[in-house]
Amino acid sequence: MTSSAPSIVPITITVDDRTGLTLYAPPWEDEDEEQWQGFLGDGRKILLYPSTDELAAFIASGEENDLSDHPAYGQILKATPDDLKPGSEDHYDLDQVYEWAGDEPDPVHVSALANVVDMVTRIADCCDDGALRRLLEGTPAYAELVDEDVSYQGKDGRKRWNELGDTIADSWERAIKRTSDWLEWVGDFSDTDFDVEDTVWERVGAEPITIRVGDESLLTVRAEVPVDPDTDEVEMAFLGDDGTVSVFTEVADLARYCREAKGHRLQKLEWWSELAELDDEDFTPHEVATFDLRKPSDEGAELLVDLAVFCDLDADLDLLDEPDVNREDWNALVDEVRTCLELQD
Asked: Quick check: pTM over 0.70?
């Protein structure tokens, strides 16, 4: 995405058990409508620092770098170490890719994988590494991963997820090697002073989602909750209880409910109370957590199953296993599930 308001953001990159801090300028257009993007670099490699203090010291030195001519670099020159802390979405862990790919294709793992592959592609573009760019953009499984319309749900989706895993097992080490060649680690990384932490939602083990039905976009939260504290068995649950799911049309209302409501199923989650510290905007669902039930889809089918089971509906869910779901059967099941969606003020 190209921005009309140029900006520079701090990010971390993790490779081979080392995490370094750098700056990234997302795509933007100059006054001649030419597109640019870039990293903090020395003309040859991307510079990575072990702490915000050391990055701030480099910036304060006034040394020329690849972002010195960026329109927003004047703001960076005024940044304090606290200003240079990356946001929760600005950590790119290349080492973690194998683990994510071996886990379930839920929106959190899919989004994390897509973000890392996208960032490595941007490194390839900025460093003019044709081989790395071809590896990612020319490999269907990687190209499909960063496509916002891709789904890894249902039988076909599961097949694509498995193919992506095979691709990662076969080629990601090459991607890491080529990426590493463009990184310059500046300083002592044996004891970094910043932590790459999970987001609050990741720690809670839940996510806000959008459900599109009819003319409405309804918001709620879903998560896996423990069935028995003495076992590892879990089940999918949503905001609500007793056969109903609490849904909202406004993010602020969803945020207030999550902070204040009692007695719903998700309160079983160990870190649920931490959501009280989030701003309203942090309850906005990511695009990958949007489920359009207005027409049959693999992703929508999985959500319908989860909702039907949670609401204890006596519905024929086997019809969702068919290669081509009958539209009338789909709409009938959606209508049945909608009876369980309880709109909150």
From this structure: no
